[in-house]
Amino acid sequence: MGYRNLKRNTTIKRAMRILAALAVFTACLTLAAFALVAVRAGTVDRLSDLRRLPEGERLPRFVDDCGLLSTSQAEELTRKLDEISERQQFDVVVVVVDSLGDRDARLYAADFYEQNGFGGDVDGLILLLAMEARDYAYATTGYGLEVFTPSGQDYFETFFLPLLSKDRYFEAFTAYAEAADDFLDAAKAGEPYTGAPKTAWGIFIDTVEHIVFAYLIPAVLSLLMAWWIARAVITEWEKELQPVGSGVYHNSIYLRNGSFYLTVKEDQFLRKNTKKTYVPPPPDKTTGGGSSFTSSSGGSWSGGSGKF
User: Fold this and answer.
1) How far is 303 from 292, CA to CA, in rounded Å?
2) For residue 259, how many other CB atoms are within 10 A of its CB?
3) Using CA atoms, how far apart are residues 22 and 291, in angstroms rounded to an integer?
């Protein structure tokens, strides 16, 4: 009887341990589930915290939270952005906010665009200014990825960034809109910008380089090769020349053996030849225009950012 009771007690204790382990495991799963729900809820809040209108509605294409422009300037700029956007079927947007918070400037621009009704077919471009730290960013998506190529974005910045640096905001926003219009026209013509177009001086330099490398250098090399061949032939002929009226020309005719002695022997350094070869520096990898990134919703974007 005592053995049976001991065995029964051991079995009960083992079962209690198993039940306790299951209870702890269940509690851990429950906590993990609540944490996952909280994270997902936080993610949704972060994705939607830039939305200013109910879903399906669109903000004006010019948003100015800091009052950079006068009322008349804001109305004129909005009309220009609307005209370009409707004609090109491509939203061109300007947004001015006070601060980015803890967001990346390009990500803020892309999220603001997506969450406020812009880009009916997800095609568009946005310029964002955050005045607190003088941050700027521009971002494009959809068809804009073909229009504003990474190598062409450096050129695109030159239209408005110098004006932003001088606080000439209306002129900068107007130049941005007109440059976007020009880039869209070039892309539709099958020639998207990949950099600054060449000036007349640049075209002249390219022409000179083509003439030098295609014609002048080959001609000079051909002349040098012909001279070298002719010189080699003449040298061989000179070796075969002999004095008139004599046999083989040899110093034994006029020099008696043992009659020539050198009294001074020395070596003198005359000159040296040094050849220098230019080694170009490695390419600068910090340039190259804008780069690709992903918005909070997973959309594909490209653009650049910095301080102005």
Assistant:
1) 7
2) 6
3) 51
Query: What is the amino acid identity at position 20?
Result: A
Per-residue pLDDT, 49: 76
Per-residue confidence (pLDDT) for residue 234, from 0 to 100: 77
Report the half-sphere exposure of 228 (CA within 13 A, side-chain side): 6
Rounded to an integer, what distance in angstroms lies between the CA atom of residue 141 and that of residue 121? Answer: 10
What is the residue type of 175?
A: A
List the structure tokens of 78: 């909005």
Q: pLDDT of 295-305, one tens digit each?
A: 998 999 999 99
Which residue carries 């830039």 as its tokens? 50
The per-residue pLDDT for range 15-70, each reduced to its tens digit, is 556 655 555 555 555 555 444 434 333 333 344 478 887 877 889 999 999 999 99
Strands 291-294 and 300-307: antiparallel
Please work out, in degrees rounded to the nearest 5, the angle formed at the alpha carbon of residue 74 by the alpha carbons of 68 and 77: 115
Give dist(CA 33, CA 23) in Å, integer: 15
Task: Give me the residues paired with residue 127 across strands.
Answer: 94, 138
